[in-house]
Amino acid sequence: MHPLRLLSAAEQTARHLRGELERGHWVGSLPGVGALAAELGVNRKTVEAALGQLEKEGRLAGQGPGRKRRIVTSKAGPARPMRIAMLEYDPMARTEGYMVELHHSLGAAGHTAFFSEKCLVELGMDVARIGRLVRQTKADAWVIGAGSRDVLAWFCAQRVPAFALFGRREGLPIAGTGPDKVPALIAATRSLIQLGHRRIVLVVRRERRLPEPGRAERAFLEELTAHGVPVGAFNLPDWEETRAGLFELLRSLFQTTAPTALIVDEAPLFAAVQQFLAARGLRVPEQVSLVCTDADPTFEWCLPTIAHIRWDPAPVVRRIVRWAATVSRGRTDVKQTLTPAEFVPGGTIGPVPLAERSASV
């Protein structure tokens, strides 16, 4: 259960205006900000914020400074509240800040958003089991978090509208969004190479490796190749996605020719890698450099600072809310968008150990 979040004055105003628009209270355009503020008994800033939210949802269109906002009509009919099921990758994803904000934003837009009974990991990414869950769930639309290629392709074949939040969506006819980590991962890899690292390992989930490496993973391997570093299974290893499987991977990596740098996908996996290195007495960054491909609130408390990739979740949330507004009117939306991500250097990366540098010369 998420903590109670009271709607702000702007959100309450937007909800009221949304209902009046759906009832046809105004035709053509809305009254001016001053007239609405007087009618609703709120200040102009609150009205402006509420109108801005309705513009983002596609319900209103601005016509320039000092002009009234035009009401966007749809030949497909008025918007209808929807029940939107959110099928997350794993239980931890449900507590992410952007998921909490998405839950509230969809609610503020008039929809009922809820998490499905089971997540993708619990269902084993099995489309047969996912199909049973979908059939048993009363939902008008689905948001799928970090779905595999097979899972997202299955949703594309269904009549229910679906949105791919992250996941292997490239080339599929499904709406989607997520951070563009390719430039940031290239920057992180290049920084490590410039520091003398050549044995760099990228630890990612199965869905990012198979049936072939994703965009970011391909960019990582290509960057190594461009700098004369031979690539293979060592750089993008396969592993069993359990706690024991992760630690077995790390033990095997450090058993013979150990990596000098690890790039780890997801903050929970990053924390597990840190624990493994500490238990083995391996110092960061003196012996091993570390990069996390995501940001995490706990990083603010870490010394040395954590090298990581960060991105703004606000555009992601807004894109899904706009998609919901479109499909709630009976229209199709399969547009895919990307939001920029950046590499943030930190104290967990440093020069390759001198002994390693000498050995590679």
Number of strands: 13
Q: What overall geometry do the principal axes of the alpha carbons give? A: elongated
The overall pLDDT, averaged over residues, is: 91
Q: What would CATH call the architecture of the largest domain?
A: 3-Layer(aba) Sandwich
What do we call the CATH topology of the largest domain? Answer: Rossmann fold
Return the domain count. Answer: 3
Which structural class should the secondary elements be placed in? alpha/beta
- Tell me about the largest β-sheet: 6 strands, mixed
Radius of gyration: 24 Å
CATH-assigned homologous superfamily of the largest domain:
Response regulator
Distance between the termini: 56 Å
- Structure annotation, total helices: 13
- Under the CATH scheme, which class of the largest domain? Alpha Beta
> How big a fraction of the residues is strand?
5-15%
Secondary-structure element pattern, one letter each = HHHEEEHEHEHEEEHEHHHEHEEHEH
Q: Spans of 5+ residues with little confidence (pLDDT < 50)?
A: none
List the strand order in the largest sheet: 8-13-12-11-10-9
Share of helix among residues? 25-40%
